[in-house]
């Protein structure tokens, strides 16, 4: 069995796949490997799984592959609904608004409100990195910009990991990135966290306020969390699909796995296939509004 991660190593999808794979290997009684196939905001790896007919290839999909990309492009190399069978939602993934500590210190920024003040008072001064034009890390920032009228110059990278590297070195001032990706750097003091993008604080960072509560009136209700879920090609026969759904959901209630995912910054879900399908529908409506606000349209 192969779990394709359509993003580079180190992100939330990659982390979820690598922690889930050993549990599936034990329960299914066969090797389960993780294969990173990054490119085009997840389209390349997703298209590969959509066309797989070997019965042993899965996708660790995300809000990007199954919601945002279809909203941005009319020419996707796969259909997120017709080409895939949902297996289970693995977890939700808050993003964190982080700054390079040196950049923050030079501007006197220690909070979301102070960032908004600096970005509106000094147009063109602050650079915002993202994992690519139209990526979840980009749209979280675009929503922030639209609501606050903050002047943030957007620089899209080939991946969120590449963007984060430049925030760490100070080439870029700030970005919105997945909690699992930034958590080691937060613990090491290499990044300054300003706010988490979920409506509730993260249990793993209980002292970090949400953007919603720390950003003032303009950011009331701000929410831009992501999620990761396991999908199979639609061609997978019903019997092995049903077994896979059972085993994946059972793996996600194993205490050791739940603890490792939680400590890495994911809120573990382990829901049914039907719940994942319903989530895709609900998220499509929500993110359509964000895409409309951002004005982004990427035909690729």
TrEMBL record:
This is Bug family tripartite tricarboxylate transporter substrate binding protein. Pfam families: TctC. PANTHER family: BLR1237 PROTEIN, TRICARBOXYLATE-BINDING PROTEIN. It comes from the Bacteria. CDD domains: PBP2_Bug27. InterPro entries: BUG, Bug_dom1. Belongs to the UPF0065 (bug) family. It comes from Pelomonas baiyunensis.
């Amino acid at each position: 069995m192969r779990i394709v991660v359509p993003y580079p190593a180190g992100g939330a999808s990659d982390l979820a796949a690598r922690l889930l794979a050993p549990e599936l290997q034990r329960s299914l009684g066969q090797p389960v490997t993780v294969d990173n196939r990054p490119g085009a905001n997840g389209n390349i790896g997703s298209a590969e799984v959509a066309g797989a007919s070997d019965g042993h290839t899965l996708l660790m999909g995300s809000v990007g592959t199954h919601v945002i990309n279809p909203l941005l492009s009319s020419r996707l190399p796969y259909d997120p609904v017709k080409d895939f069978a949902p297996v289970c939602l693995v977890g939700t993934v808050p993003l964190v608004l982080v700054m390079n500590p040196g950049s923050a210190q030079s501007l006197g920024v220690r909070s979301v409100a102070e960032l908004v003040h600096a970005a509106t008072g000094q147009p063109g001064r602050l650079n915002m990195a993202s994992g690519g034009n139209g990526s979840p890390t980009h749209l979280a920032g675009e929503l922030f910009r639209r609501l606050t009228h903050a002047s943030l110059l957007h620089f899209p990278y080939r991946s969120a990991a590449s963007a984060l590297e430049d925030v760490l070195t100070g080439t870029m001032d700030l970005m919105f990135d997945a909690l699992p990706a930034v958590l080691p750097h937060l613990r090491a003091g290499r990044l300054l966290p300003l706010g988490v993008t979920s409506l509730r604080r993260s249990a793993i960072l209980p002292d970090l306020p949400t953007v919603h509560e720390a950003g003032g009136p303009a950011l009331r209700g701000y929410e831009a969390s992501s999620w990761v879920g396991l999908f199979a090609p639609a061609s997978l026969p019903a019997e092995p699909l049903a077994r896979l759904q059972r085993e994946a959901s059972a793996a996600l209630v194993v205490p050791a796995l739940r603890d490792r995912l939680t400590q890495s910054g994911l809120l573990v879900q382990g829901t049914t296939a039907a719940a994942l399908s319903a989530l895709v529908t609900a998220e499509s409506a929500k993110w359509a509004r964000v895409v409309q606000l951002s004005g982004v349209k990427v035909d690729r």
